[in-house]
């Protein structure tokens, strides 16, 4: 060790640590800049896809949904990679007579691998989907990211009329009491027959609470565009990029 | 989808020249950016998305083109296009490859070469703001998207200057969430010089500590709705290291960077940021001005030395044994830690200078005895040194002052002592 630096009558700084002894303390080694790599933890933004897999979705419809989500992922990954505000995550719920989460927790889009939906059958029980969604829309379940969450984006894709017309309203009522749901951006896409069905559009209107968020995909060709539009606009709006 | 095609030509505002599209580059919220040919020179064109911003915006841009860039750090509008296909744009220099977006540093896609470069980048950002503000302008949309930094030397280029306007004028922009001043968040005020200073403090904080100064364990528990955002960033923002309020301390999982780095950098930065985000949070008179930042950053840089090639911060406020080969130069306004290859700058030894990049002195070891240090005179002034034994010496430009304990150096307008 060389000379002792005694400190001096420098202008007082509020939070300065009091010098506690007259023994000189050793200089603490500065970690190198390579050792302090940035590890940005971003607020999560969960994009929920709620997908109707009832029997009527068989064939081209479910194929178009698979294709649309597959095409969307690279766009979401691109946004995720350059975005310093939000970590985009994906959660997928499929429903027919029952509801089933394909993602056990929301998956970061950066590493998400999409498995095509192949098995399609059963009725269109919206109530089951609403119930399953309600269970996970909490800080203790799907909105538990370390750095907190943005309001989620929830997209409901269906072609059908409700099979549980007497039961789903109560589940939807329960869901509407969930404040995460209330604040979420909600969109509904009525696919093919669904676009022509007043019952289908009624559910979507009740679900979104906003006529302009109920979109029609009168044929499967435009489904991909519609899904991309609502998802990317929703993500950009909430995460305020650009 | 890009709205202009490769090869498409657009007339400039005076219709005497044309801009030819070479390539689509990127886009932001307001516009698209293209690589273009302008009079044989490759430039960047910012092209507004339709509906194009209103005429006042166009006119303001025309005024800014005429005024010229505040300094060389601005990718300033050089020429405006005529209105074309329902929109318009402006030409600026193209960002060179070696400059990276600010966000890339946050995402660990770009890394500063060393701490010195990091501090120099902060100084360059601050200086650009100082000059812009001194001309009566404000930036109004300070956010990470507007800054390109060269990680090798800390050089900074500022783009997205289209909202720059004279004090008192606002072209409609509010700014970007997480960078807006509280009074702007709650719509009490339009962006101006004072809100620029708040946003600048956020930008500098993130340059050093990555995480956000107002996001901690309190704020992360809420869903970020508009109303809650207004609360957390506008009505009742809480600084993560507010000495009088520990509710919003950084969370180890969510804000690990600031926890790791807070005590790493000099106390001067802690004090400045604490003031900026406590007293200065809502009181514009307590916001840190650019002149203050320059002073703070020069002090911080003066506490950074190299020991055996490794960067080391020396806490000049602590009572401590200095490592071998380290001296302190105490000036009336600065204390500078010195070791082999340390530099002192014009603003530190010339009372009348604000030049933080002009090197005025450099420390070198004696060739025959490495324990003997000398301060080489890189200035144009002759220094006078008085050693403890009483001998006086003149140090002409290119000469050396031996850094002996107790030596007093008269640099002309300021005097310093070696410890
Ligand atoms: N002069 C330039 N040279 C190269 N790329 C640029 C230049 N200016 C802007 N860009 C790129 O274009 C993108 C959008 O530019 P920006 O001015 O921030 O748009 P906006 O104001 O619409 O958000 C930026 O992310 C940046 O990478
Ligand atoms: Mg902009």
Query: What structural category do the secondary elements of chain A indicate?
Result: alpha/beta
| The CATH class of chain A | Alpha Beta
Rough shape of chain B?
globular
Question: Strand sequence of the main sheet of chain B, in spatial order?
Answer: 1-2-3-4-6-5
Q: Report Rg of chain A.
A: 25 Å
Provide a count of the helices of chain A.
7
Helix share of residues of chain B?
25-40%
Q: Report the radius of gyration of chain B as a whole number of Å.
A: 24 Å
CATH class of the largest domain in chain B: Mainly Alpha
Class computed from helices, strands and strand pairing of chain B: alpha+beta
Number of helical segments of chain B?
11
What is the distance, rounded to the nearest whole angstrom, between the alpha carbons of the first and last residues of chain A?
53 Å
* Average pLDDT over all residues of chain B: 95
Please give the largest β-sheet of chain B. 6 strands, antiparallel
Number of domains of chain B: 3
CATH superfamily of the largest domain in chain B: Transferase(Phosphotransferase) domain 1
Cα separation of the termini of chain B: 63 Å
Question: Which short descriptors sum up this protein?
Answer:
heterodimer, A: 242 residues, alpha/beta, Rossmann fold, 7 helices, 18% strand, B: 419 residues, alpha+beta, Phosphorylase Kinase, domain 1, Transferase(Phosphotransferase), domain 1, Tumour Suppressor Smad4, 3 domains, globular, binds adenosine-5'-diphosphate
In short:
The complex is a heterodimer of chains A (242) and B (419). Chain A is α/β, with parallel strands linked by helices and 242 residues long.
Give your account of this protein's structure.
The complex is a heterodimer of chains A (242) and B (419). With 242 residues, chain A is α/β, with parallel strands linked by helices. Chain A is built from 7 helices and 8 strands, in the order ββαβββαβααβααβα. Chain A has one domain: von Willebrand factor, type A domain (Rossmann fold, 3-Layer(aba) Sandwich), CATH 3.40.50. Chain A is 33% helix and 18% strand. In chain A, strands 2, 3, 4, 5, 6, 7 and 8 form a 7-stranded mixed β-sheet that branches. In chain A, strand 2, helix 1 and strand 3 form a beta-alpha-beta unit. In chain A, helix 2 runs parallel beside helix 3. The longest helix of chain A has 23 residues. The N and C termini of chain A lie far apart (53 Å). In chain B, a hairpin with a 6-residue loop joins strand 1 and strand 2. Chain B has 3 domains: 84 residues, 2-Layer Sandwich (Phosphorylase Kinase, domain 1), CATH 3.30.200; 196 residues, Transferase(Phosphotransferase), domain 1 (Orthogonal Bundle), CATH 1.10.510; 115 residues, Tumour Suppressor Smad4, CATH 2.60.200. In chain B, the strands form 6 sheets. In chain B, strands 1-2-3-4-6-5 form a 6-stranded antiparallel β-sheet, covered by helices on one side. In chain B, strands 16-15-24-23-20-21 form a 6-stranded antiparallel β-sheet, with no helix packed on it. In chain B, strands 17-18-19-22 form a 4-stranded antiparallel β-sheet. With 419 residues, chain B is α+β, with helices and mostly antiparallel strands. The model of chain B has no long low-confidence stretch (mean pLDDT 95). The interface between A and B is large, with 53 and 68 residues. Strand 1 of chain A pairs antiparallel with strand 14 of chain B. The complex binds adenosine-5'-diphosphate and magnesium ion (MG). Magnesium ion binds next to loops of chain B.
């Amino acid at each position: 060790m060389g000379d002792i630096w005694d400190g001096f009558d420098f202008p007082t700084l509020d939070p300065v640590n009091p010098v506690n002894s007259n023994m000189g303390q050793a200089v603490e080694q500065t970690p190198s800049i390579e050792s302090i790599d940035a590890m940005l933890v971003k607020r999560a933004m969960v994009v929920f896809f709620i997908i109707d897999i009832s029997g009527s979705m068989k064939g081209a419809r479910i194929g178009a949904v698979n294709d649309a989500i597959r095409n969307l992922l690279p766009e979401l990954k691109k946004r995720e990679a350059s975005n310093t505000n939000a970590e985009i995550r994906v959660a997928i719920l499929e429903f027919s007579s029952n509801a089933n989460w394909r993602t056990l927790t929301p998956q970061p889009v950066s590493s998400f691998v999409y498995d095509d939906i192949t098995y399609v059958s059963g009725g269109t029980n919206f109530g089951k989907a609403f119930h399953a969604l309600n269970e996970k829309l909490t800080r203790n379940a799907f909105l538990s990211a370390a750095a907190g969450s943005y309001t989620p984006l929830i997209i409901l894709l269906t072609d059908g009329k409700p099979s549980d017309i007497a039961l789903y309203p109560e589940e939807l009522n329960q869901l509407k009491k969930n404040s995460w749901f209330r604040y979420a951006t909600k969109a509904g896409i009525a696919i093919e027959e669904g676009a022509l069905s007043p019952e289908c559009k009624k559910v979507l209107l009740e679900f979104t609470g906003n006529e302009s968020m109920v979109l029609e995909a009168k044929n499967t060709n435009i489904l991909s565009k519609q899904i991309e539009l609502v998802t990317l606009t929703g993500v950009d709006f909430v995460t305020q990029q650009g | 989808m890009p709205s202009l095609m490769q090869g498409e030509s657009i007339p400039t505002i005076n219709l005497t020249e044309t801009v030819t599209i070479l390539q689509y580059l990127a886009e932001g919220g307001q516009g698209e950016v293209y690589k273009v040919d302008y009079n044989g020179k490759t430039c960047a064109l910012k092209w507004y998305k339709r509906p194009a911003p209103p005429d006042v915006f166009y006119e303001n841009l025309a005024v800014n083109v005429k005024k010229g860039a505040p300094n060389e750090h601005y990718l300033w509008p050089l020429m405006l296009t005529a209105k074309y296909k329902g929109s318009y744009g402006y030409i600026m220099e193209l960002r060179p490859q070696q400059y990276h977006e600010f966000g890339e540093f946050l995402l660990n896609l770009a890394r500063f070469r060393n701490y010195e470069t990091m501090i120099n980048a902060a100084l360059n950002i601050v200086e650009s703001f100082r000059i812009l503000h001194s001309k009566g302008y404000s930036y109004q949309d300070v956010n990470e998207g507007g800054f390109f930094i060269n990680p090798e030397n800390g050089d900074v280029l500022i783009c997205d200057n289209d909202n720059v306007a004279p004090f008192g004028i606002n072209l409609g922009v509010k700014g970007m969430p997480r960078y807006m001043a509280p009074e702007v968040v709650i719509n009490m005020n339009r962006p101006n010089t004072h809100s620029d200073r708040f946003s600048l403090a956020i930008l500098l904080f993130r340059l050093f500590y990555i995480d956000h100064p107002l996001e901690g364990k309190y704020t992360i528990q809420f869903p970020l709705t508009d109303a809650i955002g207004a609360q957390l960033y506008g009505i009742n923002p809480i600084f993560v290291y507010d000495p009088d309020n520990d509710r919003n301390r950084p969370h180890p999982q969510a804000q690990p960077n600031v926890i790791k780095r807070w005590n790493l950098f000099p106390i001067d930065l802690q004090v400045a940021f604490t003031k900026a985000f406590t007293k200065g949070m809502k009181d514009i008179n307590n916001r840190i001005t650019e002149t203050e930042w320059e002073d703070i950053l020069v002090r911080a840089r003066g506490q950074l030395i190299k020991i055996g090639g490794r960067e080391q911060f020396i806490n000049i406020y602590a009572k401590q044994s200095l490592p071998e080969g380290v001296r302190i130069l105490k000036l009336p306004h600065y204390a500078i830690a010195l070791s082999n290859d340390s530099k002192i700058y014009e603003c530190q030894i010339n009372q009348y200078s604000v030049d933080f990049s002009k090197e005025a002195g450099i420390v070198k070891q004696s060739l025959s005895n490495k324990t003997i240090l000398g301060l080489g005179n890189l200035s144009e002034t002759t220094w006078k040194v008085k050693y403890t034994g009483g001998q006086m010496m003149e140090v002409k430009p290119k000469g050396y002052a031996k850094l002996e304990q107790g030596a007093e150096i008269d640099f002309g307008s300021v005097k310093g002592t070696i410890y």
